[in-house]
Design a protein that fits this description.
With about 180 residues, this protein is mostly helical. The chain has one domain. About 65% of the residues lie in helices and about 0% in strands. The radius of gyration is 18 Å and the shape is globular. About 5% of the residues have low confidence.
Length: about 180
């Protein structure tokens, strides 16, 4: 599946698999996502992809980050747990395979379809995903880039980052080595 199909921009329907090639659970989840309102599906797809973008800023997506993405898709995206797991995994794979070329395009699409409140919610969620572990400087830089793409201000970025200051790696005390005072 291409990112354009994942975002619902290609208007391609999910084709039925040969009987017995996939589990009934997977078929139910795919059917549930396919039945979702196309505008909501587009929003969820871009939202999940952007969350994976910040999780992958340091070139790895941890299990803790994936669980946080799934949680946010349930909480903020109003998906079932099964739908959230599927959407998160699809977004992760798309991010790994096409991240460098799709990052700006997906964020531009999100900017087009999201309200200001949804953009601010995304910004909070980006820090939430990054704080699943300590927020690295690389992740902070990626969030700053993402923040500017949907036309959020630097003040929006700073205000949200302040709420997560205790998770910022740059502010953590480093252990002293021998000879330091």
């Amino acid at each position: 599946m291409s990112i354009m199909e994942f975002l619902g921009l290609a208007r391609k329907k999910v084709e039925a698999s040969a009987p017995g090639t996939e589990s009934e659970t997977v078929r139910k989840i795919v059917a549930a996502l396919d039945q979702m309102d196309p505008d909501k599906a587009r929003y969820i797809a871009s939202f999940a992809f952007i969350l994976c973008r910040v999780a992958r800023a340091d070139l790895k997506i941890t299990q803790t980050e994936m669980r946080e993405i799934e949680h946010l898709l349930v909480e903020r995206g109003k998906l079932t747990e099964e739908q959230a797991i599927l959407a998160a995994q699809m977004a992760k794979q798309q991010s790994i395979f096409f991240g460098g070329t799709e990052n700006f395009l997906v964020t531009r699409e999100f900017n087009r379809i999201a309200t200001r409140a949804q953009k601010l919610s995304l910004l909070d969620c980006l820090f939430s995903v990054a704080s699943a572990n300590l927020i690295s400087t690389v992740e902070e830089n990626e969030i700053s880039k993402i923040c500017s793409e949907p036309n959020l201000s630097h003040d929006d970025y700073i205000a949200t980052r302040t709420a997560y200051r205790e998770y910022r790696a740059v502010l953590q005390k480093t252990p002293k080595t021998d000879g330091e005072q």
